[in-house]
Amino acid sequence: MNLTLRVNQINDLFAAVLKEWGGSLLLLFLRGYVAWAFFHSGLLKLSDWSATLALFHDEYHVPLLPPDLAAYVGAFGELFFPVLLFAGFLTRPAALGLFIVNAMAVISYPQLFEFECPAAIGQHIDWGMSLLVIAAFGAGRFSLDAYFASRR
To answer: What is the DSSP string of the chain?
Structure first.
């Protein structure tokens, strides 16, 4: 067997495995990564609610919402959507919901752009791009969405 044919067979094998499972594993990783980041942030908000309210009154300036309501909506979004996202249940709406929470965080806290370390805004960009990928491609095989789709 010639070397070119053998190399092509090996590449085809890897391509088949990655096509079958790679995307779903990547989506599972992205879902877990983003869900944990937002859920952890929501838990921090709940752990000291008076500090959270003070931040929404003094630092975060959410457009169109009073500070107290913005704090409740933000904490709810950071706790509710990640659970759906991680489970892969209603994944696309959950990803879009978290994308909006993320966008509001960036809009409401313009100091993100002024920090010496660009990692702060960079993380929000990473999360936003990951959420758009999840919204575009769904949850993959390892999700409740896939389970329910297979039961139709």
So the answer is: --HHHHHHHHHHHHHHHIIIIIHHHHHHHHHHHHHHHHHHHHHHHHHTHHHHHHHHHHT---TTS-HHHHHHHHHHHHHHHHHHHHHTSSHHHHHHHHHHHHHHHHHH-GGGGT-SSTHHHHHHHHHHHHHHHHHHH-S-SSSHHHHHHHT-
Residue 61 amino acid letter: H
- pLDDT tens across 33-86, in order? 999 999 999 999 999 999 999 999 998 888 889 999 999 999 999 999 999 999
Domain boundaries, the chain: 23-150
Please state the pTM of the whole predicted model: 0.85
81-101 pLDDT, tens digit each: 999 999 999 999 999 999 999
Rounded Cα distance between 114 and 93, Å, is 31
